[in-house]
Each structure stands twice: as structure tokens, then as C-alpha cells.
Write a structure and sequence with these properties.
Layout (H helix, E strand, L loop, with lengths): L8 H11 L6 E3 L2 E4 L10 E3 L4 E5 L13 H14 L15 E8 L2 E6 L5 H7 L9 H4 L15 H15 L18 E6 L4 E6 L14 E4 L3
Helix pairs in contact: 2-5
Length: 224
Amino acid sequence: MDSLAYYSTNNLAQFQYLMWRPLYWIGDHSQIVVNQPLSLAAAPVYSKGNTVVTINLKPYKWSDGTPVTSRDVVFWINLLKANKVNWGEYAPGFFPDDVTKVAAPSSSQVVLTLNGPVNPQWFTESELTQISPLPQHAWDKTSATGKIGNYDTSTSGARAVYKFLASESTQLRTYATNPLWQVVDGPWKLSSFSPSGLAKFVPNSTYSGPVKASAASFTHSSSR
């Protein structure tokens, strides 16, 4: 959930997506559509006059071996709802304002109840593609030494978690050593990082999706 200050193509396409996959991957070659094979979930199912959306997750794992579950999706949504004014993509009336209820009937299923009927293609491609599951089991804390909890389930707790994570994200020199950023579900992990823009990535050996890392490492520089 990138803040307005740091919301950019550079941060998303060239950095975040290597390590943290979006729930639904948008883009299939030259087509602006959901790329189902690269998505973390099966195609969403719309019901009750397109006011309820059921999302079934595929069997992915975080790099520490913990499964990616519905709790990770709900964690992202809870943080967003409590801190939406800080989100680079927030537009009043749209996600998450148009979601009235979030439920997780099982570890692999999320059900969203909307405030009115939607066009399924539009909602999937424009709103569901914005969701990126986050590792609740590793990130749901309010300080570096604090215990993992369910803080995100309250507005005040979600704001405290977001404040902590946002603060940690400003510490550029610790990007490659901070345990928070080592828990990923994408094909790559960060092994070294320089505030000047030089980043080295190595394969995530537990990546369970398609298009696995095909090199021992690679280095990316955003310096000019």
C-alpha cells in the first residue's frame, strides 16, 4: 500500500512486484486484461446481482514457508481502510469505500460485499488488481520488538501498524537486512541495497508460482 509520496511506476513495476505479487496481475502482452496464470487467485466469482465477490486463492507460500492465506488479503484491506487517505490510488467512493463487508470463510477464500452492483470486468481490472496480500504473520506489529498480533482488526491498531511499517520503509540502508522485507511471495528477494539506487536480487527458493527466477542473481540500478 504505497503512500502518495512514494507511489510511482519505479517503485511498483521495478521493485515491489519482484517480491510481493498483486492478487490479480494486470497485463497480458499488449492486452490490458487480468493475466490469470500470473495471479495469486482464481478468477473472482460475482453473485447476488454483482454485489458479492468471492475470491479463491491459489496455493502460494511466503518465503519463510508460511502459506499465503485469506488473512493476508484481509490484512491489506484493513490497513487500507484505516489509512486510505495516505494511499496513492485512493479515490473517494471507490475501493475500499465501496466494500461494506470483508469475510474470510476459509484460509483460501475471501468474500467482499459491495454497496451496490458493479460491472465485474471493471471491478476486477480496476479495483481487485490493486490488492497485494501482505504477510500478516510477520508484519502485524506496532514496533520492531513488539509481538505479532491482530492489531489491524481495529482502526487504531491498523493505523499503528501502518505507522510502524511506513517508518521502517524510510530506512533505506536496512532494506536488505530488515527481517520485515525478507518475507516475500514473489520470485525474487533483495540481497543488498544502496540508498543511491543499486539493488541486488537473488531467487526466492520457495516461490511457488510460474515464471521462476532463472538467474543466480541480478543487479538493478535506478541511479542516473
